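#structure-requests
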Amino acid sequence: MKNGVFFVLFLSLLCLFACKEKGETKKNIKTEHPNVVFIAVDDLNNMIGILDKYSGSKTPNIDRLASRGVIFSDAHCQAPLCGPSRASLMTGLRPSTTGIYGMISDEKIRSENNPATKDIIMLPEYFKKNGYHTMGIGKLFHTHAPNEVFDESGGRKKGFGPYPEKRFVWDGFGSSDRKKYGRTSTDWGAFPEADSLMPDHQSVNWVNERLKKTYDRPFFMGIGFLRVHVPLYVPQKWFDLHPLDSIKTRPYWADDLNDVPPVALQINDLPMMPSTDWAIKSGEWPKIIQAYLACISYVDYEIGRLLDALDESEHANNTVIVLWSDHGYRLGEKSTFAKHALWNAATKTPLLFAAPNLPKGKVIDKPAELLSIYPTLLELCGLPAYERNEGKSLVPLMNDNDLNPHFAITTFGMNNHAVKSKQFRYIRYEDGTEELYDHKNDPNEFTNLANHPDYLDIKSRLKQHLPTSNTIWDDNSSYTFQPYFVEQKARTNSNGGKNIHVIGAAQ
């Protein structure tokens, strides 16, 4: 009997020694595939410390995450609107493939009437099908997530509150026709009193509780922050980090839009948003930017809380982190305060990966797409590639094994596309009109070179990257906030709403 007890003790000690030798202590549990922490920040442009010294932003936690991995300084969304952007990222398909150009219910992204999406495996589902325990909270898809995508769901607080009893500055309608345009939740000011009253704070609490647990398989954890989405409300202390006398407004020309096509002006018809001219005359421009920076600093603090919890957990050294936003945000550029455009300030977004096998503190200035998140995560986690993905993995580029030119394509409505190369942005609208900007000499896109004879060859080369299939609007997708898109969907779907492809229409 004694010999049996001693033998059991001997085996236990041997196992403990072996685990320590392999680094498999509780602090550093290794599994065959790494965990994923998937961080979405709503409406965050590139005004973060490591990328934008101009703005005076304060993002110590995003910056420290970037020091652990690779950040793309020229990443772009596939649609400058949250619904279609997130649907594209989560399905791995371009808007021009799915016809999802506007908002769409999470549950209707996958539809029997849409041949592109009816059997698509969405990003979190792919991890689930490959043995991961999936969890998510907050705004990940447009609302939260389709049913059963996550094993554990924390849901999402409705709206973008909390809200004060009355708006502080902007009524949400401007001078617009209230029946023709939607109402924006745009407003700015210090509210509420404490971080603990913010839904994002509660989301981080939910995530951090789960990071304390031990799992018998790798996990996929998604968290979708509601800020920096309007209204630009956060507690006063975050405004105090950005005194008004330190605020710099964004580059702006009053006649900047004189050389763009009429369709661009139709798309940019957003009277429910504050205009830059109004912001200048009212003195509110620096206050809007101050509020935006305050929201960034607040979200950065919450990201820091999450990173601290991860670092203190047993998952610290075996987790892939990706941080992204669904599109950029204009803070006065091109005459307004909104996303909703194919110009650089609206499409450019942060994209950051940190993983055990990636370089540390690397900044890549080649164009990248949010569409690449899906295949990149699969490769970083050692999972088989999903053949339906239209994006390509960025792992070779991050490891200096891809020297090819890179391009990013953004689509806004049917057959309106932008192609971003390292130096140029080319835009082609559904009626064939064009814009071309040389970012080396004109980073603010003030001068449209599309009709300049010296740039015909550049336009020709960039046209080759336009999507050749342009699906009509998905029946379940719409954007009633803006008249142009209401009219376009009605016009292009007048054949009965069947999902067909218009081949070569953009050429």
